[in-house]
Amino acid sequence: MTTPPSPPPPGGAAPPPGVVPPRDPGAVPPVTVPDVATSQPQPSSDTSIGELVSNITQDFSTLVRQEMELAKAELTQTVSKASKGAGMFGGAGLAGYFTLLFLSLALWWALGTLISDEGALPALGWSALIVAAIWAVVAAVLALTGRKEMKEVEGLPMTTQTVKKIPDAVRGQDH
């Protein structure tokens, strides 16, 4: 039978050996992170070549696995942001489409009325060609701007940077 832990004696003295002081229920337990560099056995002068190769293979495998996890995390974050932005642009595009449609129809009718003879019917054919030419210029400018923006997409910058360090890490060199 064990004795429940007693509160610490007054004056801040340590509890007797074998007695665990009670924890504060709201306290967060400490988290320890293993140090990868010190958790591996260090090679000694009597370590065989097979053990060294095994250690190198294990370290390389761990490095590749960590790089893959980093790439997945970056890709997930990038796709998430891109999909949210694409959804918003899609909604804005639809609303903009209807706005431009009705503004174009109004411009078409106004131009047709302006270029017609007095008292005659509006010249809607020519005004439609003028509005179409305006939209062709707008489409070309947007396409060129979009192409420029797509060329500036970064991809996976952190993964690319850390993958470049792998050959030096394999050789045992630090950056």
Approximate helicity band: 55-70%
> The biggest beta sheet, please?
none
Structural class label: mainly alpha
User: Beta-sheet strand percentage?
Assistant: under 5%
Distance between the termini: 56 Å
Give me the Rg, rounded: 35 Å
Shape: rod-shaped
The number of helical elements comes to 5
- Poorly predicted runs are 27-34
Total number of strands:
0
On the 0 to 100 scale, the average pLDDT is: 78
> Topology as H/E string?
HHHHH
What does this structure look like?
The chain is mainly α and 175 residues long. The protein has a domain at 48-168. 63% of the residues lie in helices and 0% in strands. It is built from five helices and no strands. The protein has helices at residues 36-39, 49-115, 124-151, 157-163, 166-170. α2 (49-115) runs antiparallel to α3 and α2 (49-115) runs antiparallel to α4. The radius of gyration is 35 Å and the shape is rod-shaped.
Which key features would you list for this structure?
175 residues; mainly alpha; 5 helices; 63% helix; rod-shaped
Write the layout of secondary structure elements.
Blueprint: H1 36-39, H2 49-115, H3 124-151, H4 157-163, H5 166-170
Helix pairs in contact: 2-3, 2-4
Task: Briefly characterize the structure.
The protein has five helices and no strands.
